Amino acid sequence: VICLEESVRLMRAIGDRLCEAPILRSLALTSCAQGRFGEAIACLEQSLALTRTSGDQPGEGRVLESLGEVHRMQGRLEDAGSCLEQSLILARTTGNHAAGAYASYGIGEVRRQQGRLEEAAGYLEWSLAVFRQCGLRPWEARALDRLGTLLADKGDPTGACRAWRSALAIFRELGMPEATEVAARLEHRRL
Q1: Helix ranges (DSSP H) in 34-177
Q2: Exposed/middle/buried for residue 135 (C-beta within 10 Å: 0-12, 13-18, 19+)
Q3: Chain segment 107-160, per-residue pLDDT in tens
Q4: Distance CA 83, CA 64 (A)
Q5: Contacts of 85 (CB under 8 A, 6+ apart)
Q6: How does DSSP classify residue 155?
Q7: Of 184, 140, 181, whose CA–CA distance to 163 is shortest?
Q8: Distance (Å, rounded) from C-alpha 22 to C-alpha 50?
Q9: In CA terms, which of 20, 120, 151, 158 is 20 to 30 Å from 45?
Q10: Residue 18 belongs to what H/E stretch?
């Protein structure tokens, strides 16, 4: 955090606003990981203003996706959905399929939490297809995990377990910690 804050001060001192924006986003993500959501949002809002002023649409999309995730983590689902939808529009405008998949994944999770399961399914299935196409295996597994949860919410335990088993195989292959949680979820379903 100290290094990121010093980097922001340095960018401001030399007047490099374009480089300041991604550093603010990194500082926000670090603050979020530490549970300091207010600081994260403040940094992201500053970063968003800088990306908009400079016309950096890909950067703006990344910031909006991060801002949407922070809002989702705090239960502000309407704000989260709005930010993520804007991020998805920018990703499509700039032709950045991977960024669109991250935004779509987030929207899918927001819609699932709102109980809008059919909408959620469409977003999650699209993000899964793009993650696979781009070779983003960790995110492929996360999308499969979320689809499993969605299928369980819809009353399809067989489909849920199938998605979770696929997610678990990738998580284990990559040595990701999410494997433990998914394995426990599958074991719980067997009882």
Answers
A1: 37-54, 57-73, 77-94, 97-113, 117-134, 137-153, 157-174
A2: exposed
A3: 999 999 999 999 999 999 999 999 999 999 999 999 999 999 999 999 999 999
A4: 5
A5: 103, 107
A6: T
A7: 140
A8: 9
A9: 120
A10: helix 17-33
191 Cβ contact partners less than 8 Å away, ≥ 6 residues apart: none
| pTM attached to this predicted model | 0.88
Q: Which residue has the tokens 């203003």?
A: 49
Structure-token match 């991604």, residue found: 22
3-state secondary structure of 74: coil
Buried/exposed code over 146-172 (b: 16+ C-beta within 10 A; e: otherwise): bbbbbbbeeeeeeebbebbebbbebbe
Per residue in 168-191, pLDDT (tens digit) is 999 999 999 999 999 999 998 874
